[in-house]
Amino acid sequence: MIEVGLPGGRAAFTTRRGGVSEGPYKSLNLGILTDDDPERVIENRRRAAAAAGLTPERIAMGWQVHGTELREWGGPPEDPGYQRPGATLDRVDGHLTSLAGLGLLVLAADCLPVALASPAQVAMLHCGWRGLAAGIVQRAAERFADPPAAAIGPGIGGCCYEVGPEVLAAFADLDGVADGRMLDLRAVAHAKLRQAGVERVEDVDLCTSCRPDLFFSHRRDHGITGRQGGIVWREAS
After folding, report:
1. At residue 194, what are phi and psi to the nearest 5 degrees?
2. Are 149 and 116 in contact (CB under 8 A)?
3. Which pLDDT tens digit goes with each residue over 161-203?
4. Which residues are CB-neighbours of 13 under 8 A, at least 6 positions away?
5. Nearest to residue 121, comparing CAs of 89, 139, 143?
């Protein structure tokens, strides 16, 4: 697990190491919507929560749809899908809370998990190209009273992310984010954060596709792969 300190909180980005899954999901797969054994995923999720110093029932998540919808959490989930796969989840790609000790989780296998934090509030965003193009970063940053700091987790790099013209067109207004058909999603996230007024950005700067020893990658593994997670939580003041 890779941890990053932020104002008032912490962000943690899991790797594929330290779990119990096998085969293409080896070993810390957190994604239940795969062909992995659900009981192994549940154990992996328990281990990931423990590594972050959280309990599974205090981790909130959603059903990610590559959109820009956000959910504000005023308390732990009543039916925690993190520890009970099959629970009903809101279709959201971002989460916010001002509650200390509540983990906000997104899952990824090439998309960027992006954490935002201020002393009073934290947010976690699932940032694929669609969400970034549609303004998920701006929507989340606007919910903070003051510009937050950010942490960008592992995701596919410009070295490995070949895209079509419709994707490149979505970012035609940004300089230096593409080299031919190779899109640098991390550079896009940095640009969107700057536009949203975020000045402090901690960047893990690791490519999921380049590091099969550390990360799952949907593109590299042709869709048969696991999911790592990005978690953020407020620390008690």
Report:
1. -60, -45
2. yes
3. 999 999 999 999 999 999 999 999 999 999 999 999 999 999 9
4. 1, 2, 3, 4, 113, 153, 154, 204, 228, 229, 230, 231
5. 143
Under 8 Å between Cβ of 162 and 181: yes
Tokens standing for residue 100: 């200390």
Separation of first and last alpha carbons in the chain: 24
The answer to whether 1 and 51 are in contact (CB under 8 A) is: yes
| CA-CA-CA-CA torsion sign (235, 100, 135, 92) | positive
The amino acid present at 153, given as its one-letter code, is G
Fill in the amino acid letter for 136: I
Q: Which fold has domain 2-64+76-234?
A: CNF1/YfiH-like putative cysteine hydrolases (3.60.140)
DSSP state of 113: E
187's tokens: 């550079």
> Coil, strand or helix: which one is 48?
helix
Query: Which structure tokens are listed for 94?
Result: 């971002």
Task: Could you list the beta-strand ranges (E) of the chain.
Answer: 2-6, 9-13, 59-60, 70-73, 94-97, 103-108, 112-118, 121-127, 149-152, 178-179, 182-183, 201-203, 228-234
pLDDT in tens, 198-235: 999 999 999 999 999 999 999 999 999 999 999 999 99
The helix/strand count (H/E) of the chain reads as 5, 13
